[in-house]
């Protein structure tokens, strides 16, 4: 695949070089004064058109953007937004998560188990990170509960 992109890049570069050579040939007969006048004219025309577009978009109310409510399809599952991101875990749920983590760790002790562990990690790439996140959230939950009791 690398070769395809390299050839494509070389092709684009050749086309750009041909266009640059063509334009250089066309402008080679122009004097320095004509080149500067052309550059100033180009900047005034395109700068002016850009300024007009910006000015018109700010002054015109006909083309203003209106914010409308979105219609949510009936079959959509809406997950409530919890701003405080509370993750309430029971001791039993944490026990099951830690047991599963111990099982995953024990898989790495044998060659066959390592193959199973690698396939789990490959086909469920976020699983191990999720387990660590859940354990951290539980520890934070315990600490928060302890802090609230102290107050």
UniProtKB/TrEMBL annotation:
Keywords: Membrane, Transmembrane, Transmembrane helix. It comes from the Bacteria. The chain crosses the membrane at residues 36-58. The keyword Membrane applies. This is Uncharacterized protein.
